[in-house]
Amino acid sequence: MRLISRSAFTFVIILFIVFVSKAQQTTHRVFGSVIDSLKHPVANATVSIIKLSNQAGFRFTRTDTKGNFSITLPQGFNKDSFSLKVNCVGYEKYTKHDFLIDEKNIIQLTSSQNSLPDVVVKDNRPIVQKGDTLNYNAANFTGKSDRYLGDIIKKLPGVTVDENGKISYQGKPINNFYLGGDDLLGDKYNIATDNIPSKEVDKIQVIEHNQNVKMLNGIVPSDQAGINITFKNPNKFHFIDNAELEGGTPGKWNGTVHNMSFNEKFKAINEFKSNNEGLSYTRETGVSGLGSAPVGNSLFNKAEMLNLNDLYKFNKYKGLRINGYYLHDVQSTQTQSSTTYFLPGNDTVRYNEKDNNHLPIDAFNVQLNYNVNSQKAYFDNTLTFTQTKTTPYTNILTNGQNVLQNTDSKSTSFSNTLQGYVLIHKKHIINYNSVFQYSDNPQTLMVTPGALPENLNDGISYLNTFQHQHLPSYSTDNHLGYSHVFGHWMFGTNAGFNYQNQHFRSNVQLVQNDHSITEPQGFANGLHWQKAQVYFTPQLTFKSYSDQLNISAPFNFTHINYHNDSVANNADKLNHLFVNPTVSWQHKIGKENQFSLSYNFGQQAASISQVYGGQMLSGYRNYSSYQTPLLTGNAQTYDAGFDFKKTLLALFANVDVSYTRNVNYFLDSTSVQQNSTVIIAIPVHNASSNIALAANASKYIYALNTTLAIGANFGHGSSPLMQNGVLFNSHNNTSSYNASITPTIFDWLDMKFSGTYARSTSSSNAIDYPKQMSRQWNETSSIIFYPVKNLSIDFDNQFLNSFQRGQNPSSAFLMNSYVQYNFQGKKWRNLQLRLSCNNMANVRNYEIVNISSNVVNSYQYLLQPRMLLLSAHFDL
User: Fold this and answer.
1) Which of 11, 165, 217, 626 lies at a C-alpha separation of 20 to 30 Å from 346?
2) Judging by beta carbons within 10 Å of its beta carbon (0-12, 13-18, 19+), is residue 825 exposed, middle or buried?
3) For the chain, which domains are there?
């Protein structure tokens, strides 16, 4: 078996040769540092190489905040014809003819005798670029109706926020979110964006090549951006304490209390929230619930949450952080659904359900982190404990039969992650990492009346089905790495091992009509799983002003051994050497644009969830078993992208195209009947592919004080399916277009608009396979009036239209409105009174259709009723 296709191998070799030759052409440079008479670095000084003949500029740059500079020289450069010149306000001009090449130049400036008096200059431009940091002035992007930080971030050109609150810059997810330079929240930065008052924010900074480890800045490159929030009066120690209380009809409430601080020594976001308005706290906790409809609100709940996030800084570089939450939530939804399988041969299977879903949740999490992050040392240790108990139960009416389905689950996990770096003479980097994790998740599923009697009980109906399962899991991963920096190049490697031990137990019990208990054959597992890996990861990086090349060829020797006490032939072992190379290249075009290419190849091994031989129930009508080969396949991905930016014009754009091909050594065979769905993995070699194109552009329009954003996404995928014994290929096409704008036309009028149009099709070359097509339009807009000072009146709506070929279109139009008055001054504690009406037309149901391959799903949601609410937001 060839690990890498010939074309992919040729691609990597050609790319490497091009870069080696390019590196040889751009090896020489003039670099150094600029200091003053007190040996302090001089930032923002202009360093130029000028021609001696006419004093014309040849190359120039500016020093960074540490006074460092670097200028790349072209091939054949003759320094005898040039001199080095340094200019900076407040200092005498400096000129040097005998400057050094490929050696550090130390330039000391002398203060000007006729320096200007101190002047405070305030830059009010919306966007300012300093080095690789974009500074967005929050005042330019904050509207009168914007309450929180997240309202501002959504308006920033070049930045996108998805429906779950995840932030991307130029199409790539950010890698860190800082508050005043510190990481308080980790990946749960929605706690900040959803709760920090907009009036406290000074600037939003996008660090385009964010390296979280300070000692590696300028040494180990990064191609992901980070975001830092700066605050007004950062040196003043004060707490931001506020609350919001809301109540109304029919019997609704919502309460929030915040305690926040963003000082250099101490940072905190602590909150208590409670509501029965259908507001989920998934964004703050990460705990999944029942979800909601894409339009309106279909979640009914009673929830309380305590969320604590505190960071104490011992000094500028050392900090102790605690994050934790407790969540109690009782959720419910009501849905009606219809699922239709369009099978080859003009065969159709359809089943209908009406579900009353209930989900009680009790979740607790605590995380303790100690971090040292300076120019000389990096150490980080995180200890985490999580426990979540859920007891979902659903009343189901399916094809005229009532079914009650209950699940009792309690998951517990404990982990510790330690990592660090040691930098020796700025050329030798040693890193270490150690991870330990233990988890357990016992579950019990109960179905009444007994599920699948034809499959489990010889066609005889019975009272109840119970399925018990238990999966304790232990794993550890440890590695030690070394990297060496020489000029533009860095060579590094990691060597380590990981070990995983799991024991999966499950069994099914049937309660017969006489209350006796039986166990069906083939529905039990006693799977013992062990996996061990020894790995070695060599990496080569080239970094110059205009180019960055990364080549990695990680390989590992994997040993897997498992056996199933309950299934005689369910045992296997694997000893295999995996090689998963990756290569990426970024080329800077001009000062602001970038082109990128990447390729990666990965072999895939099965996990424990893919090898159990005993049948497992996944609901009242579904069961499955998997005995996939331990070597499951491989995947290759090619990606190309281009980022365009004109900071002075506040214009950002990016386009990305990717192609992925998967080769699989097994295929899921699905048997779809009116009363059951059975999935079994079979050893059939197959391949699937997908191509995707994404393009986005955004522009800040000064005249309207707004950002216009547009985007488009296209995808085509092809994959084999086996259903009811028929093997066929399914071809899926998707396309979507989106646009948003928030113009401020007059001082007394704000407008907001966003819309998305999506289209998907599914087809096959199989005989009598009906082509499927669906369209969806989702639009939200609002108009906000400010008739007098401190008074605002808002009207907003959401419209969603869904259409599926052969069906009548469905649509919903929801309207909301509020009137708000702001009481100014400390004596009023910045009181905001708001009278709002949600779902003014009292729309109670909405239907949506979506397509996945040859399956069409139709869902109808029960929405929250009209609410009349009065709220008060005030400082404590």
Assistant:
1) 626
2) exposed
3) 6-108 (2.60.40.10), 127-236 (2.170.130.10), 377-875 (2.40.170)
